[in-house]
Amino acid sequence: NLLGNASASGAGPLYVQLRNALEAAIRAGHLADGEALPPEREIAESANISRVTVRKAVDELVKAGLLVRRQGSGTFVANPGERVQQSLSMLTSFTEDMARRGFETRSIWLERGLFFPSPEEMIKLGVASHVKVARLGRLRMANQVPMAIERASLSSEILPDPDAVKTSLYEELGRTGFRPVRAVQRISACNLKKEDAELLGVREGDAGLAIERLSYLASGHVAEYTCSLYRGDAYDFVAELTIPV
Ligand code: 16G
């Protein structure tokens, strides 16, 4: 009985008592990492409290990172060691990848604007020195956990207004008919520098994956040049291999 210990957790509003009881159950291992929480309706009935109260308690634990909600499948005890399994064969966006897992995505903007291209951007994007490029730098989070630092550059001919990107770059490119159809991705190991490690919530020198993506339009033009730093402790990149024919 999850609310059994609630009275022991002291007074206060009912939802706080339930929140404390649930937290105690998780910390004591009565609810194991990755385990599903009983449906809110069941908790409400067994504890004889309203579903609104249960919802409020669960919301708080989701915010605190102890529980995770997965769309369509329920609420689970967070598994801190769980790594994201990311397929290397699909050209998808971060927002789509996370939505498919039922994770809530959020980005913190590090940079957004139009700039004259660096020599590297000129080469990668194939733009002349007078053509501005849109730069989008974001810390990308899933369920409030920082996952990657992503710095995308696109020719202003493809993305004239970087401020038009609200949550998803690929969604905006889809809207304007510039969604890439092909990409080349390069992954290399790195040790995270102090400022990057701080953003990602890990220690300086921890392992990271540096990923470079060059994506292309059907016309063959480069759509995007993106350099990302993924947390080495949070991501597995998985590719399916077939026999050459
Ligand atoms: C992915 C891509 C990145 C792309 C972004 C768009 C990798 C390594 N990177 O994170 O190149 O710009 O998705 O995401 O896969 P968005 O549409 O959610 O902004």
Task: Explain the overall architecture.
A hairpin with a 3-residue loop joins β1 and β2. The chain is built from seven helices and ten strands. The protein has a six-stranded antiparallel β-sheet with strand order 4-5-6-9-8-7. A two-stranded antiparallel sheet has the order 1-2. By secondary structure, it is of the alpha+beta class. It binds 2-acetamido-2-deoxy-6-O-phosphono-alpha-D-glucopyranose. 2-acetamido-2-deoxy-6-O-phosphono-alpha-D-glucopyranose (16G) binds next to α4, β6, α6, β8 and β9.
Unreliable parts: none
| Secondary structure tally: strands | 10
DSSP strand (E) fraction? Answer: 25-35%
C-alpha Rg (nearest Å): 22 Å
Helix and strand element order = HHHEEEHEHEEHEHEEE
Described by the principal axes of the CA atoms, the overall outline is: elongated
Q: What ligand molecules are bound, each kind once?
A: 2-acetamido-2-deoxy-6-O-phosphono-alpha-D-glucopyranose
**Structural class by SSE content:** alpha+beta
Main beta sheet strand tally, sense and closure: 6 strands, antiparallel
Separation, N- and C-terminal Cα atoms: 59 Å
Biggest sheet, spatial arrangement of strands: 4-5-6-9-8-7
Q: Helical stretch count?
A: 7
Please bin the fraction of helical residues.
25-40%
Nearest-integer average pLDDT: 90
